[in-house]
Amino acid sequence: MKSRTEKLSFHTKRPLRRRILNRVFTLIYSVAILALLYHHATTLLHPTTTTYLSFFTTLSMLISDIILAFMWLNSQAFRFNPVVVEPFPDTLQQLLKAPENYPALDVFICTADPSKEPPMMVAATVLSAMAYDYPTQNLSVYVSDDGGSELTLFALTEAAEFGKVWLPFCKDNRILERCPESFFRSTLPTTTNNTHTHKIK
Asked: I want to staple 155 with a disulfide (CB 3.0 to 4.6 A). Which of 40, 63, 123, 170 is the partner?
Protein backbone atom coordinates (compact mmCIF):
# COMPACT_ATOMS: atom_id res chain seq x y z
CA MET A 1 0.00 0.00 0.00
CA LYS A 2 1.46 3.34 -1.03
CA SER A 3 1.75 6.16 1.47
CA ARG A 4 0.05 9.48 0.99
CA THR A 5 3.30 11.25 0.08
CA GLU A 6 3.95 8.87 -2.81
CA LYS A 7 0.62 9.84 -4.40
CA LEU A 8 1.39 13.56 -4.28
CA SER A 9 3.19 15.15 -7.20
CA PHE A 10 5.20 18.31 -6.59
CA HIS A 11 6.04 19.00 -10.23
CA THR A 12 5.72 17.74 -13.77
CA LYS A 13 8.36 17.49 -16.48
CA ARG A 14 7.66 18.26 -20.11
CA PRO A 15 10.44 17.53 -22.64
CA LEU A 16 11.15 20.20 -25.23
CA ARG A 17 10.95 19.44 -28.93
CA ARG A 18 14.37 20.88 -29.66
CA ARG A 19 16.03 18.00 -27.82
CA ILE A 20 15.92 16.00 -31.12
CA LEU A 21 17.83 18.73 -32.94
CA ASN A 22 20.28 18.96 -30.06
CA ARG A 23 20.97 15.24 -30.22
CA VAL A 24 21.47 15.32 -33.98
CA PHE A 25 23.88 18.24 -33.61
CA THR A 26 25.72 16.42 -30.82
CA LEU A 27 26.10 13.33 -33.00
CA ILE A 28 27.44 15.28 -36.01
CA TYR A 29 29.76 17.36 -33.86
CA SER A 30 31.07 14.24 -32.10
CA VAL A 31 31.91 12.64 -35.45
CA ALA A 32 33.80 15.79 -36.46
CA ILE A 33 35.76 15.81 -33.20
CA LEU A 34 36.67 12.14 -33.55
CA ALA A 35 37.83 12.76 -37.13
CA LEU A 36 40.00 15.65 -35.97
CA LEU A 37 41.54 13.58 -33.17
CA TYR A 38 42.15 10.73 -35.60
CA HIS A 39 43.90 13.14 -37.95
CA HIS A 40 46.20 14.37 -35.17
CA ALA A 41 46.99 10.83 -34.05
CA THR A 42 47.74 9.72 -37.60
CA THR A 43 50.05 12.70 -38.10
CA LEU A 44 51.95 11.78 -34.93
CA LEU A 45 52.30 8.11 -35.90
CA HIS A 46 53.17 8.80 -39.53
CA PRO A 47 54.81 12.23 -39.66
CA THR A 48 55.49 13.82 -43.02
CA THR A 49 58.47 15.72 -41.61
CA THR A 50 61.09 14.66 -39.08
CA THR A 51 61.50 18.03 -37.32
CA TYR A 52 60.90 18.20 -33.61
CA LEU A 53 58.98 21.45 -33.99
CA SER A 54 56.36 19.82 -36.17
CA PHE A 55 56.02 16.87 -33.77
CA PHE A 56 55.52 19.00 -30.66
CA THR A 57 53.14 21.30 -32.51
CA THR A 58 50.94 18.39 -33.53
CA LEU A 59 51.16 16.89 -30.03
CA SER A 60 50.13 20.16 -28.37
CA MET A 61 47.21 20.52 -30.79
CA LEU A 62 46.10 16.97 -29.99
CA ILE A 63 46.21 17.61 -26.24
CA SER A 64 44.35 20.92 -26.54
CA ASP A 65 41.69 19.37 -28.77
CA ILE A 66 41.18 16.53 -26.30
CA ILE A 67 40.71 19.03 -23.45
CA LEU A 68 38.30 21.16 -25.47
CA ALA A 69 36.37 18.07 -26.58
CA PHE A 70 36.04 16.95 -22.96
CA MET A 71 34.75 20.40 -21.92
CA TRP A 72 32.28 20.44 -24.79
CA LEU A 73 31.07 16.93 -23.96
CA ASN A 74 30.35 17.94 -20.36
CA SER A 75 28.34 20.96 -21.52
CA GLN A 76 26.10 18.76 -23.69
CA ALA A 77 24.50 17.17 -20.63
CA PHE A 78 22.35 20.30 -20.26
CA ARG A 79 21.26 20.24 -23.90
CA PHE A 80 20.83 16.52 -24.50
CA ASN A 81 17.48 16.29 -22.72
CA PRO A 82 16.07 19.77 -22.00
CA VAL A 83 12.81 19.78 -20.04
CA VAL A 84 10.42 22.32 -18.60
CA VAL A 85 9.54 21.79 -14.94
CA GLU A 86 6.14 23.04 -13.80
CA PRO A 87 5.83 23.08 -9.99
CA PHE A 88 2.61 22.51 -8.07
CA PRO A 89 2.64 24.86 -5.05
CA ASP A 90 -0.82 23.66 -4.02
CA THR A 91 0.55 20.19 -3.44
CA LEU A 92 3.18 21.54 -1.05
CA GLN A 93 0.54 23.48 0.86
CA GLN A 94 -1.55 20.33 1.07
CA LEU A 95 1.43 18.44 2.46
CA LEU A 96 2.14 21.12 5.06
CA LYS A 97 -1.31 20.57 6.51
CA ALA A 98 -0.28 17.03 7.52
CA PRO A 99 3.05 17.11 9.45
CA GLU A 100 3.17 13.31 9.63
CA ASN A 101 3.74 13.28 5.87
CA TYR A 102 6.84 15.46 6.01
CA PRO A 103 9.89 13.78 4.42
CA ALA A 104 12.82 12.83 6.63
CA LEU A 105 15.37 15.63 7.04
CA ASP A 106 19.02 15.01 7.98
CA VAL A 107 21.25 17.91 9.10
CA PHE A 108 24.99 17.17 9.00
CA ILE A 109 27.30 19.55 10.91
CA CYS A 110 31.09 19.27 10.52
CA THR A 111 33.77 20.61 12.85
CA ALA A 112 37.47 19.91 13.18
CA ASP A 113 39.42 22.52 15.16
CA PRO A 114 37.95 23.89 18.42
CA SER A 115 40.34 26.87 18.29
CA LYS A 116 39.00 28.01 14.89
CA GLU A 117 35.44 26.75 15.44
CA PRO A 118 34.53 27.49 19.06
CA PRO A 119 32.53 24.67 20.66
CA MET A 120 29.89 27.15 21.80
CA MET A 121 29.32 28.15 18.18
CA VAL A 122 29.00 24.50 17.17
CA ALA A 123 26.58 23.88 20.03
CA ALA A 124 24.53 26.93 19.02
CA THR A 125 24.40 25.62 15.44
CA VAL A 126 23.16 22.24 16.68
CA LEU A 127 20.48 23.85 18.84
CA SER A 128 19.39 26.05 15.93
CA ALA A 129 19.02 23.01 13.70
CA MET A 130 17.14 21.08 16.38
CA ALA A 131 14.78 24.04 16.82
CA TYR A 132 13.58 23.91 13.21
CA ASP A 133 9.83 24.19 12.81
CA TYR A 134 9.73 20.58 11.64
CA PRO A 135 8.30 17.34 13.07
CA THR A 136 10.85 16.01 15.55
CA GLN A 137 10.31 12.40 14.48
CA ASN A 138 11.45 13.28 10.95
CA LEU A 139 14.43 15.44 11.92
CA SER A 140 17.91 14.07 12.62
CA VAL A 141 20.98 16.18 13.47
CA TYR A 142 24.47 14.69 13.11
CA VAL A 143 27.74 16.21 14.30
CA SER A 144 31.08 15.07 12.88
CA ASP A 145 34.11 16.17 14.91
CA ASP A 146 37.19 15.29 12.88
CA GLY A 147 39.42 16.70 15.63
CA GLY A 148 37.94 14.48 18.36
CA SER A 149 37.91 17.37 20.82
CA GLU A 150 36.75 16.58 24.34
CA LEU A 151 35.82 20.24 24.76
CA THR A 152 33.45 20.05 21.80
CA LEU A 153 31.95 16.84 23.18
CA PHE A 154 31.40 18.51 26.56
CA ALA A 155 29.79 21.54 24.90
CA LEU A 156 27.43 19.31 22.91
CA THR A 157 26.54 17.36 26.07
CA GLU A 158 25.63 20.58 27.85
CA ALA A 159 23.77 21.79 24.76
CA ALA A 160 21.68 18.62 24.79
CA GLU A 161 20.65 19.35 28.38
CA PHE A 162 19.92 22.97 27.54
CA GLY A 163 17.94 21.87 24.49
CA LYS A 164 15.40 20.13 26.73
CA VAL A 165 14.38 23.59 27.93
CA TRP A 166 15.23 25.67 24.86
CA LEU A 167 13.33 23.71 22.24
CA PRO A 168 9.95 23.71 24.06
CA PHE A 169 10.49 27.40 24.85
CA CYS A 170 10.93 28.22 21.14
CA LYS A 171 7.87 26.25 20.10
CA ASP A 172 5.59 27.51 22.88
CA ASN A 173 6.52 31.16 22.32
CA ARG A 174 6.91 30.91 18.53
CA ILE A 175 10.44 32.30 18.61
CA LEU A 176 11.74 33.14 15.13
CA GLU A 177 15.37 33.80 16.15
CA ARG A 178 16.11 30.29 17.39
CA CYS A 179 19.88 30.56 17.71
CA PRO A 180 20.43 30.96 21.48
CA GLU A 181 23.35 33.36 21.06
CA SER A 182 21.46 35.64 18.67
CA PHE A 183 18.29 35.48 20.75
CA PHE A 184 19.90 36.45 24.05
CA ARG A 185 22.08 39.09 22.37
CA SER A 186 18.98 40.78 20.98
CA THR A 187 17.06 40.68 24.28
CA LEU A 188 19.79 41.62 26.78
CA PRO A 189 20.24 45.33 27.55
CA THR A 190 23.44 47.00 26.35
CA THR A 191 25.52 49.83 27.81
CA THR A 192 27.26 52.65 26.01
CA ASN A 193 30.34 50.52 25.34
CA ASN A 194 28.24 47.75 23.74
CA THR A 195 28.75 45.29 26.60
CA HIS A 196 25.95 43.09 27.91
CA THR A 197 24.91 43.11 31.56
CA HIS A 198 23.88 39.84 33.18
CA LYS A 199 21.89 39.52 36.39
CA ILE A 200 22.44 36.28 38.27
CA LYS A 201 19.75 35.29 40.71
From this structure: 123
